[in-house]
Amino acid sequence: MSSLMLQNPTVLLHRGTNRCSSPPSDQNPCAGGDCRTIRFHHRMRNLSIRSELAADTNNGMPKQSQNLSFPLLVNGCTGNMGKEVVKAAMNIGLRVVPVSFSSREGPDRVVQVDGVDIKIHGPSERDDVLASLVQQHQGLVVVDFTLPTAVNENAELYCKVGVPFVMGTTGGDRERLFRTVHEADAYAVISPQMGKPLVALLAGFEYMAREFPGCLQGFIPQVMESHQTSKKDASGTAKAFIKYLQLLGVKIDEEQINQVRDPMMQMEAVGVPKEYLSAHAFHMYNLTSPDQTVSLEIQHNVCGRSMYAEGSIDAAIFLAKKVQSKADKKLYNMIDVLREGNMR
Ligand SMILES: NC(=O)C1=CN([C@@H]2O[C@H](COP(=O)(O)OP(=O)(O)OC[C@H]3O[C@@H](n4cnc5c(N)ncnc54)[C@H](OP(=O)(O)O)[C@@H]3O)[C@@H](O)[C@H]2O)C=CC1
Ligand SMILES: O=C(O)C1=N[C@H](C(=O)O)C[C@H](O)C1
Predict the structure, then answer these.
(1) What residues are annotated to the active site?
(2) Which residues form the Dihydrodipicolinate reductase C-terminal domain (predicted)?
(3) Which end of the chain is less crowded, N or C, counting CB atoms within 10 A of the terminal residue's CB?
(4) Predicted local distance difference test score (pLDDT) of residue 69
């Protein structure tokens, strides 16, 4: 065990807001913790896309109670998504292990999320610290929102120490990522898109591609995505859509994604509200028939990050259940999570 671990024994945080006084039960989705109706409306406010969320909810309540007893470690807490996931986890009373990692060395680094100190360890301590946390916290699940440059090394580390993980980080060498998990026979949920309405849209395209391959043969594509300037790679969600478009017969590759990162253009040409320049994901796919008489347009615009954080927590809960039940299948995507009704 590293000396840092001894100096900083991890304390499991169990914080909830909007506490519900009813006892937890299968029928009571408040599960003795938070009232999810409030969070449901909060999420509706934060979404700029119009989707029928109600279809999968029961008056805003989740269909099933969830076992929230597993510890969660969020990797990437120096970044935006890492912090958002910690907030979402604490909001439903999940136990967050207040440790995270960074690509940079530096002693005694701490980031605060909602008043909670999270100890940050650099690359030289990372392996030992994580291995000892896995020993200390039975049932530990990791959620990773780091950077494309970290995806493969991080996944290899999780597989080496034997911790199930949710990989929300996009980019990196995706083939190597899937190979790593497959060869390690590890439990993981991997998806470039964690937001429920968009996972549903992707599932729709998966269905179309399976049932009607080639039905958009010859259609001419245009793909545009706009994200905050700090985004390092092209949209992983757009890449996933492109895979389905290819199966539908559209000639397109990832290089054709038009990435908009200039704030002025985002406001003026794309229509991103000024207050969301630093946190948005707008996508537009336009498909025109060869004779130009038919055009299809698919657009999904998201402001803020809460939707992804909520979905990541759903994925972590789903994965914890799969580990607990020793499921034979070990590698999942978010369509699997949605299909089993695990997205609140
Ligand atoms: N699947 C989904 O639905 C979504 C995916 N994403 C993806 O998540 C990723 C993160 O996004 P976002 O939070 O906005 O990005 P940020 O740039 O805000 O944060 C990324 C953080 O990762 C840290 N980091 C880099 N390398 C490592 C490493 N080896 N170990 C630990 N931490 C590391 C960096 O900190 P430091 O400099 O300290 O190393 C940085 O703070 C992106 O790939 C993005 O596309 C985002 C939203 C939704
Ligand atoms: O970096 C982001 O912000 C996002 N990344 C994911 C992607 O690349 O598809 C999901 C969403 O677009 C937000």
Answers:
(1) 227, 231
(2) 214-338
(3) N
(4) 84
**String of b and e for 13-36 (b: at least 16 CB within 10 Å)?**
bebbeeebeeeeeeeebbbbbbbb
In ligand 2, the atom with minimum distance to the C-alpha of 231 is 1
CB contact at 8 A, 262 and 268:
no
Angle at 228 between CA 227 and CA 231, to 5 degrees: 80
> Where is 312: in which H helix or E strand?
helix 306-324
H or E element at residue 167? strand 165-167
User: What is the complex's ipTM, to 2 decimals?
Assistant: 0.99
For residue 177, what are the CA distances in angstroms to 85, 173, 181, 284, 315? 22, 6, 6, 27, 18
Closest ligand to Cα 146: 1
Q: How far is the CA of 231 from the centre of ligand 2 (A)?
A: 8
Ligand 2, residue 239: give the atom nearest the CA: 9
The residue whose CB lies within 8 Å of the most ligand 2 atoms, and thus the one to mutate among 259, 308, 312, is 308
What is this structure's pTM? Answer: 0.85
Closest ligand 2 atom, residue 235 Cα: 8
Which residues are near ligand 2 (CB < 6 Å)?
Answer: 170, 192-193, 227, 231, 235-237, 281
Structure confidence by residue, pLDDT tens digits, 158-176: 999 999 999 999 999 999 9
